[in-house]
Design goal:
The complex is a heterodimer of chains A (222) and B (266). By secondary structure, chain A is an all-alpha fold. Chain A is built from nine helices and no strands. In chain B, strand 6 and strand 7 form a beta hairpin. Classes of the chains: A mainly alpha (222), B alpha+beta (266). Chains A and B meet through helix 2, helix 4 and helix 8 of A and helix 8, helix 9 and helix 10 of B.
């Protein structure tokens, strides 16, 4: 197995699999979040389930965190290795002539997403962990909707979230379809996969941005 | 004529209309010396000249002035040997598509253009002198597994005696058209050699003769590719666009499949 992870192809596959896992997570995250716009009670019910179900808390949550860490640590490692592989730099390098901007700048869109994750964890995850495991506050299945909407009251946070979702969209635009190529899938289904991946990379980030903006514009009235 | 200057078509049909070019060329004495860009002005360049013929003219001028000519790789000048290279205005083999530098014509440039000419850049392609790089890393990848073991002691079986699916034969031939020039590495932002290696893996993987050693081949060639210090593929597709032979990214996907399958098998 150690030989497997050392090889360039195995590393590509690790990036692809962890990326696809995060795509699945994004889909699930979006499905729950959109209920905060459609039906606050459903949002509360789902959030409470996710927050207190042992399987989600103690199995899926650590797996998700591991997936994120693997994806960005491997991404950084590969970026460093790739930079070294160039040797001396070109006086003139016309990257735009042969590859789209998004594919050449995955590290930058990735870094923005990583910075966003730090804020997002601080906003929601740290608060949740403190509420449940440090303060040991009582279960309250009705608190999630209000807490979420209140987070988007500051304009600056809403803007940071929306900009981050835009970068997430760019990252997915290249990364989602690219993961299939990395795993060796390039056949008659590839055009369909690429189309689906591009629609996904527009719809999901746009949906997340819509939710953030919607809650900013529709604050909870007590 | 546009603004008193001949257009590309006139430059092609009327050789007497010439261009004045401003060349910025990487000069490096040897592998251990630091290189730098040196400016040259070249007049009288015709549209029908190939890029290498343009450099020949420059070198004749340099020699007549007692200066050291610009060293560059070339051999067949027919676009089939893979010897010529050059990063021209930021692109391997220049701005044209599906051609090598020797088949790039000066009609693709305009009078008064500045052209930056550099060697292919990769840690695994160290500069030997000026524009010449050492691409023997490709040879070592090929030697690691880019062959089939056939007894040639006099009883060699005719390869055509084995029926082969037409589609597979065509795909194998397409992969085999890779001339190993290194443009894929030069174009890739990661200096990855996966298009080259995958073409060499694919040309055998698709044929029954190549299946016998398929597991060892892909493992050994990928291991050698990594050892040489090439970067990792991030699927930007730059290699496919710049490849003078149009080698497809589907070959990289095939190599990935072959490698994963070989890892599972053994």
């Amino acid at each position: 197995m150690s030989g497997l992870i050392k090889s360039s192809i195995a590393r590509k596959v690790v990036m692809a699999l962890s990326g696809l896992f995060l795509v699945v997570f994004l889909t699930q995250h979006f499905t729950i979040n959109i209920t905060s716009v459609l039906d606050p009670e459903t949002f509360n019910a789902w959030s409470h389930f996710m927050g207190y179900n042992p399987l989600v808390q103690f199995v899926l949550q650590p797996v998700l965190i591991a997936g994120v860490i693997i994806h960005f640590v491997m991404g950084f490692a590969l970026e460093i290795q790739n930079k070294k592989a160039r040797g001396g730099s070109y006086v003139k390098y016309k990257g735009s002539a042969n590859a789209p901007w998004v594919s050449r700048n995955m590290i930058y869109s990735g870094l923005v997403i990583l910075a966003f994750l730090a804020l997002h964890f601080y906003d929601f995850w740290v608060h949740e962990m403190a509420y449940k495991y440090i303060e040991v506050s009582p279960e309250d299945p009705t608190r999630y909707y209000h807490e979420t909407v209140e987070k988007f009251a500051p304009f600056w946070r809403t803007i940071i979230y929306i900009v981050s979702f835009f970068l997430l969209g760019l990252h997915l635009w290249h990364g989602f379809a690219s993961s299939f190529q990395s795993m060796g899938l390039n056949n008659k289904y590839t055009p369909g996969i690429k189309t689906f991946a591009k629609i996904f990379s527009v719809v999901i980030p746009l949906g997340f941005a819509f939710i953030a903006l919607y809650h900013h514009l529709n604050p909870v009235t007590h | 004529m546009v603004d008193g200057k001949p257009n590309n078509e006139q430059r092609t049909t009327n050789n007497y209309i010439t261009m004045k070019l401003y060349l910025k060329i990487w000069r490096q004495k040897d592998a251990s010396s630091a290189g730098k860009i040196v400016d040259y002005t070249l007049d009288g360049v015709e549209g029908d000249m190939s890029f290498l013929e343009m450099l020949d003219i420059l070198n004749e001028e340099l020699i007549s002035k007692g200066e050291e000519p610009v060293e560059f790789d070339h051999d067949c000048r027919e676009g089939i040997c893979g010897t010529c290279s050059l990063q021209i205005n930021g692109e391997p083999h220049g701005p044209d598509r599906l051609v090598t530098t020797c088949q790039l014509h000066m009609r693709k440039f305009n009078d008064g253009d500045t052209i930056v000419i550099e060697p292919f850049r990769a840690k695994a392609f160290p500069v030997i002198k000026d524009l010449i790089v050492d691409r023997s890393s490709f040879d070592r990848i090929q030697q690691a597994g880019g062959y089939i073991s056939v007894n040639t002691s006099g009883n060699t079986v005719d390869a055509n005696a084995i029926p082969i699916n037409k589609h597979a034969a065509d795909e194998a031939m397409d992969a085999a058209t890779c001339i190993g020039c290194g443009a894929c590495v030069a174009a890739c932002k990661n200096a990855s050699a996966m298009l080259f290696t995958s073409a060499k893996v694919s040309q055998f993987a698709l044929l029954p003769q190549g299946r016998v050693e398929a597991v060892e081949r892909v493992q050994n060639m990928v291991r050698q590719m990594d050892l040489e210090g090439f970067g990792n593929c991030t699927n930007t597709g730059a290699c496919e666009v710049e490849c003078p032979k149009g080698i497809s990214l589907t070959n990289i996907a095939r190599m990935n499949r072959e490698y994963l399958s070989a890892t599972v098998k053994g």
